[in-house]
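Service request form, structural biology core

Requester: graduate student, group of Dr. S.
Request type: structure prediction, single chain
Budget code: on file
Notes: please return the result as C-alpha cells.

Sequence provided:
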Amino acid sequence: MNANRNVLPHSYGSDFALVDAHEIQPEEYEEIPEMADDAITSGTLKAGGRPIYSYQNELVTLHLPANIFERWLATGPGWEQRMTARLSTLKPSHES
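Core staff response, request fulfilled:
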C-alpha cells in the first residue's frame, strides 16, 4: 500500500541546527532596516488558517451547470464564502 513512500522526513535544504545555534551579534541588527511609524500604524495583523464559524460546515455535492460554476470560480479566492453568503440570503421555496 504505502511501501514505496519515502520514510525520510522532507528536507527543506537548510541546516536548522546551525540556524538555531547562531547567536545574533550587535552589528547584525544594523542590517535590518528600521520601520517608519506610518508603516507600523498602517500594518494589519493577519491570523493564518481557516476562518472560525459559529456553525459546522457540512460537505455536500451540488450539481451546477458548468458555466455557473466557472463564473463563481472566476471571481477569485474566497468564492466559496461569497457563494455561501449569497445562498444564505435566499428563502427556501416552501417559505415564499
